[in-house]
Predict the structure.
Amino acid sequence: MNRLSIALLSAALLGTVLPTSAWAGASGLAPHRAVYDMNLGESEGQSGISALSGRMVYDFSGNACDGYSVSFRFVTEFQDVSGGSQVTDLQTTSFEGGDANLYEFLSKTFVNRKLVESTRGTAKQLSNNKEIDLSEPEERTFSIGSKALFPTEHLNKVIESAKVGTPFYAADVYDGSETGDKVFSTTAVIGALRQSPKDASATAGALLEPLTGVSHWPVTIAYFEPTANENGGEQMPIYQLTFLLYENGVSRELVLDYGDFSMTGELKELEFYEASDCNK
């Protein structure tokens, strides 16, 4: 299963939550930690999946001056129609320069507690391309197109498009996932602006109170294999991610659609960190 390539998530009411006035009208991405409960959505017979449950934790910090750090863990237990089960544990950390000239990543995937995949590398923006220096799963250096975006850079571009009312945004994205050598083609469809009601805390509980009055949009992002545009004709995405995206980078109401099955993510905990000063 692919590592998610955009900063989706939000966080837990476990520490000092910034009051709404501290960031509701501010520009930029809010440092935060999010916890989601994952469950099986729809499943077709060929998927072989009878049940699914899990938890996803996303921790995002930094700013445009100092760069952005992400720590991500996604644990899921799959049960098949014959009664067997499998636990997948995906753990990633990354750092992305605020100017999008540097991206460092480490990703490990465990199946039933056994390490089955590890990817580590660094990507740098050069004058006319991006150079990737991998140390795992094998040592090698290669280049990708200069137009490929890093994950936080891509998230910012989607939010910028949403703010100006652009309903469609297409971009190539590099996040170091799988074997670290893929650039995914993506298309984002952005819905109409929504505004959280002032009484959100009364209707949705304290969890969503910090999001009161924050602009957000329904977004669907489709991810395609790197060769998708080379064969011509209509291509099917390898997966689609649908969610509500807030202007500060927080997301909720997740749906991950892999074609023959989907999973939903319900925001259970949300914590905002104190943001450091940045003049950009």
In short: The CA atoms of residues 214 and 237 lie 31 Å apart. DSSP finds three helices and 15 strands in the chain.
